[in-house]
Amino acid sequence: MVALVTSKPRFYHEAASELKRRGIPFQSYRPDEKIPSHVTVVITSPEERGKISFHTVVAAAAARDAVREAVQVKEGLKGRYESISLGVDPGKSIGVAAVGRGRILMEEILRSPEEVARSVRDVEEMFLPKELVIKVGAAGGSYRNRIIARLQEEFTHPIQIIDEVSTTRPKWVSRRLGVHKDISAARKIALKTGREIKTPVNVDPASGEIKNIQRESRRRSAHITISKELAKAVAKGELDMDEAIELQKKGGS
């Protein structure tokens, strides 16, 4: 049993929501209450960690991170692993799944290519793998290239490009299984073998992608088409779409 022990309303709300989303039963206690012996792991905030006397306590500033680590402790997933595959499904919504010893160790949805580096560091710290292979889906255009370029800058782990044929389930199948489609794809990517990338990746977007970004700017603003230079900056993560539209209103680039 998981115990959520906190007197902080925001931390409680966020942790409880994440536990419910994962379908994990839990009990709630205040920091000054005795924790029953049937509890296996306690979740709390860093500020309240010192107030809790219990054999297994997980504390993190972000409630979602605390829940994720508590689940790994509860299910016996923490520890040193010989080899872990980290599957990444690139796109506007990025699915990530870590697989080791034939088990799913971690999975999450990220909102920017730059967040993937944080996810890699989390895997390194939590599972201490002797070998970590990062596998990135071949689709995704500049999102894919930004992910790979950032990982090449920060890590020396091998990075593979994975053919995404048969990795993405139809949305109705993912909904029926209760799994986000990008998580489902990331799991499959993690289990496949691809081509290792040996040279630095070029993050410059293709002309077709620039046109798609310009089309999206018209749709979002109702009438403004951002310039090619601004669209390129959006593709490379230097600007978000709203910033590019505002710059175009002020005279473009």
Mean pLDDT, to the nearest integer, reads 88
Spans where pLDDT lies below 50 across 5 or more residues: none
CATH homologous superfamily designation of the largest domain? YqgF/RNase H-like domain
- CATH class descriptor name of the largest domain: Alpha Beta
Order of helices and strands: EHEEEHEEEHEHEHHEHHH
What is the domain tally? 3
Classification by helices and strands: alpha/beta
Strand arrangement, major sheet? 7-6-5-8-9-10
Strand portion: 15-25%
Terminal CA distance reads 57 Å
Q: Using the 3D structure, state the CATH architecture of the largest domain.
A: 2-Layer Sandwich
Total helical elements: 9
Write the layout of secondary structure elements.
Blueprint: E1 2-5, H1 9-21, E2 26-29, E3 41-44, E4 57-59, H2 63-74, E5 83-89, E6 94-100, E7 103-110, H3 115-127, E8 131-137, H4 141-154, E9 159-162, H5 171-177, H6 181-191, E10 195-196, H7 207-221, H8 228-235, H9 241-249
Parallel strand pairs: 1-2, 1-3, 3-4, 5-8, 8-9
Antiparallel strand pairs: 5-6, 6-7, 9-10
Helix pairs in contact: 1-2, 7-8, 8-9
How would you explain this protein's 3D organization?
The protein is an alpha/beta fold and 253 residues long. It has three domains: 2-74, Rossmann fold (3-Layer(aba) Sandwich); 83-196, YqgF/RNase H-like domain (Nucleotidyltransferase, domain 5), CATH 3.30.420; 207-249, no CATH class. 40% of the residues lie in helices and 20% in strands. It has helices at residues 9-21, 63-74, 115-127, 141-154, 171-177, 181-191, 207-221, 228-235, 241-249, and strands at 2-5, 26-29, 41-44, 57-59, 83-89, 94-100, 103-110, 131-137, 159-162, 195-196. A six-stranded mixed beta sheet has the order 7-6-5-8-9-10. It has a four-stranded parallel beta sheet with strand order 2-1-3-4, with helices on one face. Strand 1 (2-5), helix 1 (9-21) and strand 2 (26-29) form a beta-alpha-beta unit. Helix 1 (9-21) crosses helix 2 (63-74) and helix 7 packs across helix 8. It is globular, with a radius of gyration of 21 Å. The N and C termini lie far apart (57 Å).
